[in-house]
Amino acid sequence: MDFDPRDYSDERDPRDPRDRDERERDYDDDALSFGRGPSSPSVEEHHDRRDRDDERHEARERADHRDRDDARWAERDRDPRDRGSDPRDVFTRSLNLPRGRDREIVHDARDREYSLRGSESRSLATVGAFRVVPARDLRDHADRPGDPRNGDLRHLREQGLIETVRIPGYREQAVVLTDRGRDLLEANRDRDRDTGQGFYAGLKRERELEHDAQVYRAYEREAAKLEERGLEIDRVRLDYELKREYQQWLQERNRDRPEADGRPDRDEREIAQWAQEHGLPYLDGHVHFPDCQIEYRDIDGREGHDNVEVTTEHYRGAHGAAVGRCGFSCYRGGSARIGGRSGGSSGGGSEHGGLAEELFE
Fold it and tell me: Kind of pairing, strands 286-287 and 329-332?
């Protein structure tokens, strides 16, 4: 679990102006605050003034964004579920969760109560779909990079819906859902719109955290290319979901057979056909699985698959050659540290710190 300096008391003199500046910088206008009663009117007035200033600031940001992008602003009156221009909206399309800027009360299947606004709904669903996402890739309600210490992510963390983990050797924090976070998503599925998008909680492969944290950004890059082709994304499936389905299919004939030895009895022809039906390559007697598979449809409703792989410096030898033959859309996992440059480097790294930054055509 990530260290949060706010969980510890400050031993310096509270009258020290340096402390006041630091406390003001860490102040979260989105977190719940508690008044001190009528005996402290100056504090209430101070909070009211901050609220008015924040509202004016957000209004200016919205106006600036509208002026910069009139074409997208014109879509504001459309149902957000039908926009589909933001690759993150795919994951909330089939959820009955808040979409606007104001927080609303929502419940899970156990009738536990939470409050969410649209950007927080989208962050929860995005993290659930990819299991782990760098915090700064989760934009808040003002389209700022996510920060677990402030704003949306702090609000989600304080409600017990997300946790943060630090990737060894990296400055950036990654976000995962808690069981409560996943339960909230599952309890609010819209059965009429459900695409079958899977949601996950916790870490599955801690040793591969560095690699898995880069898959979402590779998806963003590939989703932009699909959108340019006029294709609509339905859902994303991660490698372990595809592998689980494959193993279930292999063992399907062994179910309810006490005499079965556990070995699948599928022949090569059947396996090749299964792979083809699932948009996966079958090479050298094996089905090959990408880091994630994007399912999409064209304007006529025809379905297709796009397989995305994040490659690293460890992709060498036979494994690297096999990935190259699979026809995956391969993105190079950056050697730069997430959110900054790699140690000892005089350059390298993009604005996103080099994660999944390069596409191999």
Answer: unpaired
